[in-house]
Protein backbone atom coordinates (compact mmCIF):
# COMPACT_ATOMS: atom_id res chain seq x y z
CA UNK A 1 0.00 0.00 0.00
CA UNK A 2 1.24 3.47 -0.84
CA UNK A 3 1.57 6.10 1.87
CA UNK A 4 -1.11 8.18 0.18
CA UNK A 5 -3.59 5.34 0.35
CA UNK A 6 -2.77 4.50 3.98
CA UNK A 7 -3.20 8.15 4.86
CA UNK A 8 -6.52 8.51 3.06
CA UNK A 9 -7.94 5.32 4.49
CA UNK A 10 -7.04 6.24 8.05
CA UNK A 11 -8.38 9.75 7.61
CA UNK A 12 -11.70 8.31 6.51
CA UNK A 13 -11.84 5.83 9.41
CA UNK A 14 -11.03 8.50 11.98
CA UNK A 15 -13.56 10.90 10.48
CA UNK A 16 -16.26 8.20 10.46
CA UNK A 17 -15.60 7.74 14.16
CA UNK A 18 -16.11 11.41 14.91
CA UNK A 19 -12.44 12.22 15.56
CA UNK A 20 -12.54 15.97 15.23
CA UNK A 21 -9.28 16.67 13.46
CA UNK A 22 -9.10 13.42 11.49
CA UNK A 23 -6.94 14.65 8.57
CA UNK A 24 -4.25 16.07 10.84
CA UNK A 25 -4.35 13.24 13.37
CA UNK A 26 -3.96 10.56 10.70
CA UNK A 27 -0.97 12.43 9.37
CA UNK A 28 0.63 12.75 12.83
CA UNK A 29 0.21 9.03 13.47
CA UNK A 30 1.68 8.03 10.11
CA UNK A 31 4.59 10.41 10.54
CA UNK A 32 5.20 8.92 13.96
CA UNK A 33 5.42 5.39 12.52
CA UNK A 34 7.84 6.50 9.81
CA UNK A 35 9.64 9.04 12.00
CA UNK A 36 9.55 11.72 9.31
CA UNK A 37 8.54 15.38 9.21
CA UNK A 38 5.62 16.83 7.33
CA UNK A 39 7.55 17.80 4.23
CA UNK A 40 9.07 14.34 3.94
CA UNK A 41 5.65 12.72 4.26
CA UNK A 42 4.30 14.76 1.36
CA UNK A 43 7.37 14.03 -0.75
CA UNK A 44 7.03 10.31 -0.06
CA UNK A 45 3.29 9.91 -0.68
CA UNK A 46 3.89 7.61 -3.65
CA UNK A 47 6.31 5.38 -1.72
CA UNK A 48 5.22 1.95 -0.53
CA UNK A 49 4.47 1.44 3.14
CA UNK A 50 6.26 -1.72 4.34
CA UNK A 51 4.01 -4.47 5.73
CA UNK A 52 5.60 -4.02 9.16
CA UNK A 53 4.95 -0.24 9.17
CA UNK A 54 1.44 -0.83 7.87
CA UNK A 55 0.78 -3.14 10.82
CA UNK A 56 2.19 -0.65 13.30
CA UNK A 57 0.16 2.17 11.76
CA UNK A 58 -3.04 0.14 11.95
CA UNK A 59 -2.40 -0.53 15.64
CA UNK A 60 -1.94 3.18 16.33
CA UNK A 61 -5.13 4.07 14.49
CA UNK A 62 -6.92 1.43 16.61
CA UNK A 63 -5.60 3.02 19.78
CA UNK A 64 -6.84 6.40 18.59
CA UNK A 65 -10.26 4.89 17.86
CA UNK A 66 -10.24 3.59 21.45
CA UNK A 67 -10.12 7.18 22.63
CA UNK A 68 -6.42 7.57 23.39
CA UNK A 69 -5.32 11.07 22.38
CA UNK A 70 -2.85 11.28 19.49
CA UNK A 71 -0.46 13.34 21.62
CA UNK A 72 -0.10 10.45 24.09
CA UNK A 73 0.41 7.93 21.28
CA UNK A 74 3.11 10.00 19.60
CA UNK A 75 4.44 11.58 22.84
CA UNK A 76 4.48 14.96 21.09
CA UNK A 77 2.36 18.07 21.06
CA UNK A 78 2.94 21.42 19.42
CA UNK A 79 2.26 24.52 21.50
CA UNK A 80 3.14 28.10 20.64
CA UNK A 81 5.04 26.81 17.60
CA UNK A 82 7.27 24.59 19.76
CA UNK A 83 7.45 20.84 20.04
CA UNK A 84 6.78 19.46 23.54
CA UNK A 85 7.20 15.99 24.96
CA UNK A 86 4.00 14.83 26.67
CA UNK A 87 2.93 11.67 28.45
CA UNK A 88 -0.19 10.69 30.43
CA UNK A 89 1.17 12.34 33.58
CA UNK A 90 0.40 15.79 32.19
CA UNK A 91 -2.46 17.56 30.49
CA UNK A 92 -2.05 17.91 26.73
CA UNK A 93 -1.47 21.61 26.02
CA UNK A 94 -4.45 23.26 24.29
CA UNK A 95 -4.22 25.93 21.60
CA UNK A 96 -6.45 28.25 23.64
CA UNK A 97 -3.80 28.37 26.37
CA UNK A 98 -1.53 30.24 23.95
CA UNK A 99 -3.64 33.25 24.92
CA UNK A 100 -2.03 33.06 28.37
CA UNK A 101 1.43 33.21 26.81
CA UNK A 102 0.55 36.08 24.45
CA UNK A 103 -0.98 38.11 27.27
CA UNK A 104 1.96 37.41 29.58
CA UNK A 105 4.37 38.65 26.92
CA UNK A 106 2.45 41.90 26.59
CA UNK A 107 2.67 42.42 30.34
CA UNK A 108 6.25 41.31 30.90
CA UNK A 109 8.02 42.82 27.92
CA UNK A 110 8.90 46.14 29.53
CA UNK A 111 10.98 44.93 32.44
CA UNK A 112 12.91 41.97 33.72
CA UNK A 113 10.58 40.05 35.96
CA UNK A 114 10.05 37.11 38.23
CA UNK A 115 7.40 34.81 36.82
CA UNK A 116 5.65 31.81 38.38
CA UNK A 117 3.81 29.26 36.23
CA UNK A 118 1.49 27.43 38.59
CA UNK A 119 0.46 23.90 37.64
CA UNK A 120 3.09 23.84 34.93
CA UNK A 121 2.33 20.28 33.77
CA UNK A 122 4.55 19.54 30.77
CA UNK A 123 6.05 23.03 31.12
CA UNK A 124 4.65 24.39 27.85
CA UNK A 125 3.85 27.84 29.25
CA UNK A 126 7.05 28.23 31.28
CA UNK A 127 9.27 27.12 28.39
CA UNK A 128 7.48 29.34 25.85
CA UNK A 129 7.94 32.34 28.15
CA UNK A 130 11.56 31.50 28.91
CA UNK A 131 12.37 31.48 25.20
CA UNK A 132 10.64 34.82 24.59
CA UNK A 133 11.88 36.56 27.75
CA UNK A 134 15.58 35.82 28.18
CA UNK A 135 15.83 38.24 31.13
CA UNK A 136 13.06 36.68 33.18
CA UNK A 137 13.48 34.43 36.17
CA UNK A 138 10.88 31.70 35.94
CA UNK A 139 9.52 29.29 38.50
CA UNK A 140 7.54 26.35 37.16
CA UNK A 141 5.57 24.76 39.97
CA UNK A 142 3.48 21.61 40.13
CA UNK A 143 2.15 19.38 42.87
CA UNK A 144 2.88 16.31 40.71
CA UNK A 145 6.46 14.97 40.68
CA UNK A 146 5.64 12.95 37.56
CA UNK A 147 4.55 16.11 35.73
CA UNK A 148 7.74 17.90 36.76
CA UNK A 149 9.79 15.10 35.19
CA UNK A 150 8.03 15.85 31.91
CA UNK A 151 8.63 19.58 32.36
CA UNK A 152 12.32 18.88 32.99
CA UNK A 153 12.57 17.02 29.68
CA UNK A 154 11.02 20.00 27.88
CA UNK A 155 13.32 22.51 29.60
CA UNK A 156 16.29 20.44 28.39
CA UNK A 157 14.84 20.06 24.92
CA UNK A 158 14.50 23.82 24.54
CA UNK A 159 17.72 24.71 26.41
CA UNK A 160 16.09 26.80 29.13
CA UNK A 161 16.83 24.51 32.09
CA UNK A 162 19.22 27.11 33.55
CA UNK A 163 16.47 29.77 33.67
CA UNK A 164 13.44 27.75 34.70
CA UNK A 165 13.40 26.51 38.29
CA UNK A 166 11.17 23.48 38.69
CA UNK A 167 9.58 23.26 42.12
CA UNK A 168 7.27 20.67 43.57
CA UNK A 169 4.59 21.95 45.88
CA UNK A 170 1.24 23.53 46.49
CA UNK A 171 0.87 26.46 44.08
CA UNK A 172 2.77 29.51 45.42
CA UNK A 173 3.89 27.92 48.67
CA UNK A 174 7.36 26.86 47.43
CA UNK A 175 8.36 30.46 46.57
CA UNK A 176 9.25 33.00 49.23
CA UNK A 177 9.96 36.10 47.14
CA UNK A 178 7.33 38.44 45.63
CA UNK A 179 6.30 37.41 42.11
CA UNK A 180 5.78 39.99 39.34
CA UNK A 181 3.72 37.74 37.11
CA UNK A 182 1.71 34.73 38.19
CA UNK A 183 0.33 32.64 35.35
CA UNK A 184 -1.82 29.56 35.78
CA UNK A 185 -3.79 26.99 33.87
CA UNK A 186 -5.19 25.11 36.84
CA UNK A 187 -7.81 22.36 36.80
CA UNK A 188 -11.20 23.97 36.16
CA UNK A 189 -13.53 21.24 34.95
CA UNK A 190 -16.59 20.80 37.16
CA UNK A 191 -16.52 17.44 38.95
CA UNK A 192 -19.88 16.48 37.44
CA UNK A 193 -18.56 17.16 33.92
CA UNK A 194 -15.46 14.95 34.11
CA UNK A 195 -15.82 12.18 31.57
CA UNK A 196 -15.09 8.66 32.85
CA UNK A 197 -12.99 7.78 29.80
CA UNK A 198 -10.48 10.49 30.42
CA UNK A 199 -6.94 9.63 29.44
CA UNK A 200 -5.62 12.83 30.95
CA UNK A 201 -4.72 13.00 34.66
CA UNK A 202 -7.73 13.88 36.80
CA UNK A 203 -5.53 15.97 39.05
CA UNK A 204 -5.00 18.36 36.11
CA UNK A 205 -8.70 18.64 35.25
CA UNK A 206 -10.76 18.31 38.42
CA UNK A 207 -11.77 21.74 39.65
CA UNK A 208 -14.06 20.47 42.39
CA UNK A 209 -17.82 20.74 42.66
CA UNK A 210 -18.02 24.24 41.17
CA UNK A 211 -14.97 23.91 38.93
CA UNK A 212 -13.24 26.95 40.40
CA UNK A 213 -11.87 25.57 43.67
CA UNK A 214 -8.21 25.42 42.64
CA UNK A 215 -8.29 28.82 40.95
CA UNK A 216 -9.90 30.35 44.04
CA UNK A 217 -7.22 28.85 46.26
CA UNK A 218 -4.49 30.35 44.09
CA UNK A 219 -6.19 33.76 44.24
CA UNK A 220 -6.09 33.63 48.02
CA UNK A 221 -2.45 32.52 48.07
CA UNK A 222 -1.56 35.33 45.67
CA UNK A 223 -2.54 37.95 48.21
CA UNK A 224 0.74 37.56 50.07
CA UNK A 225 2.92 36.68 47.03
CA UNK A 226 1.99 39.03 44.18
CA UNK A 227 4.49 41.93 43.97
CA UNK A 228 3.38 45.57 43.92
CA UNK A 229 2.63 46.43 40.32
CA UNK A 230 2.43 42.73 39.59
CA UNK A 231 -0.08 40.81 37.49
CA UNK A 232 -1.82 37.48 37.56
CA UNK A 233 -3.24 35.63 34.53
CA UNK A 234 -5.70 32.83 35.06
CA UNK A 235 -7.11 30.49 32.47
CA UNK A 236 -10.76 29.75 33.26
CA UNK A 237 -13.53 27.50 31.99
CA UNK A 238 -16.64 28.62 30.19
CA UNK A 239 -19.02 30.51 32.47
CA UNK A 240 -16.53 30.99 35.31
CA UNK A 241 -15.56 34.62 34.77
CA UNK A 242 -18.15 36.10 37.10
CA UNK A 243 -17.22 33.90 40.05
CA UNK A 244 -13.50 34.59 39.65
CA UNK A 245 -13.72 38.32 38.99
CA UNK A 246 -16.01 38.63 42.03
CA UNK A 247 -13.45 36.86 44.19
CA UNK A 248 -10.55 38.93 42.82
CA UNK A 249 -12.51 42.12 43.44
CA UNK A 250 -12.90 41.27 47.08
CA UNK A 251 -9.30 40.06 47.54
CA UNK A 252 -7.66 42.88 45.54
CA UNK A 253 -9.97 45.92 45.78
CA UNK A 254 -7.40 48.15 44.02
CA UNK A 255 -6.60 45.71 41.23
CA UNK A 256 -7.59 46.22 37.61
CA UNK A 257 -9.35 43.23 36.09
CA UNK A 258 -9.64 42.38 32.42
CA UNK A 259 -11.39 39.43 30.78
CA UNK A 260 -9.99 38.08 27.51
CA UNK A 261 -11.79 35.84 25.04
CA UNK A 262 -10.15 33.01 23.08
CA UNK A 263 -10.44 32.52 19.31
CA UNK A 264 -13.83 30.83 19.77
CA UNK A 265 -15.11 33.90 21.59
CA UNK A 266 -15.19 32.13 24.98
CA UNK A 267 -14.02 34.08 28.02
CA UNK A 268 -10.79 32.23 28.68
CA UNK A 269 -8.29 34.38 30.58
CA UNK A 270 -8.73 36.73 33.52
CA UNK A 271 -6.01 39.29 34.02
CA UNK A 272 -5.47 41.05 37.34
CA UNK A 273 -3.00 43.94 37.55
CA UNK A 274 -2.01 45.66 40.75
CA UNK A 275 -1.05 49.31 40.70
CA UNK A 276 2.58 50.29 41.17
CA UNK A 277 2.01 52.42 44.23
CA UNK A 278 -0.33 51.33 46.96
CA UNK A 279 -2.98 53.96 47.64
CA UNK A 280 -3.24 54.81 51.34
CA UNK A 281 -6.69 54.14 52.72
N1 LIG B 1 -9.48 22.99 28.59
C1 LIG B 1 -9.47 21.72 29.24
C2 LIG B 1 -10.67 20.89 28.85
O1 LIG B 1 -11.68 21.45 28.54
C3 LIG B 1 -9.45 21.85 30.73
C4 LIG B 1 -8.15 22.29 31.19
C5 LIG B 1 -8.13 22.62 32.64
O2 LIG B 1 -8.90 22.14 33.46
N2 LIG B 1 -7.26 23.49 32.95
O3 LIG B 1 -10.59 19.68 28.83
Question: Which properties best describe this structure?
Answer:
281 residues; alpha/beta; Helicase, Ruva Protein, domain 3; Rossmann fold; 2 domains; 7-stranded mixed sheet; two-stranded antiparallel sheet; binds glutamine
Largest sheet: 7 strands, mixed
Structural class: alpha/beta
The CATH top-level class label of the largest domain: Alpha Beta
User: Gap between N and C termini, in Å?
Assistant: 76 Å
| Low-pLDDT regions | none
Rounded radius of gyration (Å): 21 Å
Order of helices and strands: HHHHHEEHEHEHEEHEHEE
Compute the number of structural domains: 2
By DSSP (H or I, 4+ residues per run), the number of helices equals 10
Please tally the β strands and state the result: 9
pLDDT average, as an integer? 95
CATH architecture of the largest domain: 3-Layer(aba) Sandwich
Helix share, percent: 25-40%
Secondary structure topology:
Blueprint: H1 3-16, H2 22-34, H3 38-43, H4 51-65, H5 70-74, E1 76-79, E2 82-85, H6 98-108, E3 114-118, H7 124-132, E4 137-142, H8 145-157, E5 164-168, E6 179-184, H9 213-222, E7 226-235, H10 241-251, E8 256-261, E9 267-273
Parallel strand pairs: 3-4, 3-6, 4-5, 6-7
Antiparallel strand pairs: 1-2, 7-9, 8-9
Helix pairs in contact: 1-2, 2-4, 6-7, 9-10
This protein binds glutamine.
Quick synopsis:
The protein is α/β, with parallel strands linked by helices and 281 residues long. It is built from ten helices and nine strands.
Describe this structure in words.
With 281 residues, the chain is of the alpha/beta class. The chain folds into 2 domains: 72 residues, Ubiquitin-associated (UBA) domain (Helicase, Ruva Protein, domain 3, Orthogonal Bundle); 185 residues, Rossmann fold (3-Layer(aba) Sandwich). Helix content is 38%, strand content 19%. It is built from 10 helices and 9 strands. A 7-stranded mixed sheet has the order 5-4-3-6-7-9-8, sandwiched between helices. Strands 1-2 form a two-stranded antiparallel ribbon. Bound molecules: glutamine (GLN). Glutamine binds next to loops.
